[in-house]
Amino acid sequence: MDKKGEGGYLLVKVSVNRFVSTRVEAIRNDVEADIRRLRKRTISRLEEVFNVAARVARCRNGHQRVNGKMTAIGLVQRKRWFRVAEHAALTMKNIASNVDEKELLSRLNELERLVDEAKFIEQSCMDILHEPHHRIVEA
Predict the structure, then answer these.
(1) Looking at CB atoms within 10 Å, which of 12, 103, 104, 132 has the fewest?
(2) pLDDT truncated to tens, each residue of the chain (139 aa)?
(3) CA 54 to CA 76: how far, in whole Å?
(4) What is the DSSP letter of 4?
């Protein structure tokens, strides 16, 4: 039989309240632990992106594979890889202090765009590389 208190409210045993409270606390702890794991894993992966991009940006005589062919990495591509490294570092800094899913996805989309841009060798650069030397001198 249910006992009704003042105003017709149902009185709940303290043990039920404690049970619910401990479950909510357990869920909160799980979420916090998952966020810490997610943060740690995401920062670790972004650090790998940063290290590779920074290495390419520092490399003066490096090459990259474009459409199955090895091509020299010029100053323009090095600058683009520097921007990738910079964005990865800023994203790591942001994640270290805050995990906002929408902002994180937005930053990752921007990072992906920068990587695609860094991989892209402009057609005019490719044309210059393949032209005979006498045509370059004439221009």
Answers:
(1) 132
(2) 455 555 665 555 557 777 877 888 888 888 888 888 888 999 999 999 999 999 988 887 777 777 788 888 888 888 998 999 999 999 999 888 876 778 878 888 888 888 888 776 654 454 444 444 444 433 3
(3) 14
(4) B
Token pair belonging to 54:
């920074």
Question: 76 near 122, Cβ under 8 Å?
Answer: yes
Go through the chain and tell me how many residues it has: 139
Task: Name the DSSP class of 10.
Answer: B
User: In Å, how far are 38, 49, 87, 90, 93 from 44, measured between CA atoms?
Assistant: 10, 9, 15, 14, 12
Interaxial angle between packed helices 101-119 and 14-58, expressed in degrees from 0 to 180 and rounded to the nearest 10: 20
Give the span between the Cα atoms of 2 and 122, in whole angstroms. 77
Spell out the domain ranges in the chain: 42-138
Nearest to 52 by CA among 81, 83, 76: 81
pTM of the complete model beyond 0.85: no
CA 106 to CA 98: how far, in whole Å? Answer: 14
